[in-house]
Amino acid sequence: MPAGYLPIFIFGVLALAFPVVVLTVFKLVRPHRPEPVKQEAYECGIRAASDSRGRYTVRFYIVAILFVIFDVETIFLYPWAVQYKQLGWFGVAEVAVFLAILIVGYVWAYKKGALEWV
Q1: Is residue 118 situated within a structural domain?
Q2: What is the per-residue DSSP string for 39-91?
Q3: 117: in domain
Q4: CATH code of the domain in which 40 resides
């Protein structure tokens, strides 16, 4: 083994050993008195109404994905705003095309019913 890799190897061993040692020590030190009340999920002092592993409707995921997609796309407007004067009319046309594509995406999502919450 080349001598240049020895510090990396030592660091890797320490990085793997540290969490294992700490978790083992804390498991030995902590008090362990399981009770049925402590094992329940806490919901503002109210008993759980149902199993927490219930199914969610797909609409929640669609709205979340649409939010992320359109949010990330609007981040691309920032570099354009910084370079607005240098880009001139070409930059205006470029952003107009970008926003047109974004609006087409919103219209498509609206027509598909993905933005309706009922």
Answers
A1: no
A2: HSPPBTTBPPSS-TT----HHHHHHHHHHHHHHHHHHTHHHHHHTHHHHHHHH
A3: no
A4: 1.20.58.1610
Report how far residue 113's alpha carbon sits from residue 118's, in angstroms, rounded to the nearest whole number.
10
Tokens standing for residue 90: 């070409």
Is residue 17 situated within a structural domain? yes
- Residue 101 has which token pair? 């594509």
Both tokens of 100, joined, read: 């047109």
Residues spanned by the domain of 101: 3-112
Q: What is the pLDDT of residues 12-64, one digit of tens each?
A: 999 999 999 999 999 999 988 888 777 776 656 666 666 667 677 777 787 78
Q: How far apart are CA 85 and CA 76, in angstroms?
A: 17
The position carrying tokens 């995406």 is 105
pTM of the model as a whole? 0.44
> In terms of Cα–Cα distance, which of 111, 104, 33 is closest to 70?
104
